[in-house]
Amino acid sequence: MADDLNGIITHAKDSMTKAIGHLEAELVKIRAGRANPSMFDGLTVDYYGTPTPIGQVGNISVMDARTLTIQPWEKNMLQPIERSIIAANLGVTPQNDGIIIRIFLPPLTEERRKEIVKRVQQEGEHSKVAIRNIRRDAIEHIKKLKKDGLSEDAAKDGEDEIQDITDKQITMVDKHLASKEKEIMSV
């Protein structure tokens, strides 16, 4: 029974760590005023009928703090890349000159910064909900073990440990959100 309990706790901790990793990946995609090629992570282009990440059909580079360029490996990929960026609704307009695509990032207005902060808060809330769902599932598993013969003390200790892990992960989410918010709001 103790091995089952440790397995539940380990699984919950791993799942919560993955939720934090997902949050970090999503926060990287949210731009904070500087040009960053990672804003195109997860964006796919129709490459001869196959959805392919933009980074695999062209070279993404940073020209300066507010300009990105995409140099496709094949010229006929200019239009699909441009359509994909427009469809992603990233708040930028690609400019196609027939050779490369330039993306100029407009300076963020106060209103736009607040919208971005709201989006960051939503991502954080999604992560917190995921972590709480993992906690709920782990506690349900512990209660099932208790019905199957796990002692009440061991079950209570397991539930307390799950709660401690949850609290630490929620605190970590809050730290990530605070640092991203600071990064966005700094001019």
Structure description:
The protein is of the alpha+beta class and 187 residues long. It has two domains: 105 residues, Ribosome-recycling factor (Topoisomerase I, Chain A, domain 4), CATH 1.10.132.20; 68 residues, 2-Layer Sandwich (Gyrase A, domain 2), CATH 3.30.1360.40. Strands 3-4-6-5 form a four-stranded antiparallel beta sheet, with helices on one face. A two-stranded antiparallel sheet has the order 1-2. Helix 1 runs antiparallel to helix 3, helix 1 packs parallel to helix 4 and helix 3 runs antiparallel to helix 4. The longest helix is centred in the last third of the chain and has 38 residues. The radius of gyration is 22 Å and the shape is elongated. The termini are far apart.
Major sheet attributes:
4 strands, antiparallel
What is the molecular shape? elongated
Q: State the low-pLDDT regions, or none.
A: none
What's the CATH H-level homologous superfamily of the largest domain? Ribosome-recycling factor
* CATH topology title of the largest domain: Topoisomerase I, Chain A, domain 4
- Strand segment count: 6
Spatial arrangement of strands, main beta sheet: 3-4-6-5
Q: Domain count, please report it.
A: 2
Roughly what is the average pLDDT, rounded to an integer?
Answer: 86
| CATH architecture identity of the largest domain | Orthogonal Bundle
Instruction: Kindly state the percentage of residues in helix.
Output: 55-70%
Overall SS class: alpha+beta
Total helix count?
4
Distance between the termini: 55 Å
The run of helices and strands is HEEEEHEEHH
According to CATH, what is the class of the largest domain? Mainly Alpha
Radius of gyration, whole Å = 22 Å
DSSP strand content: 5-15%
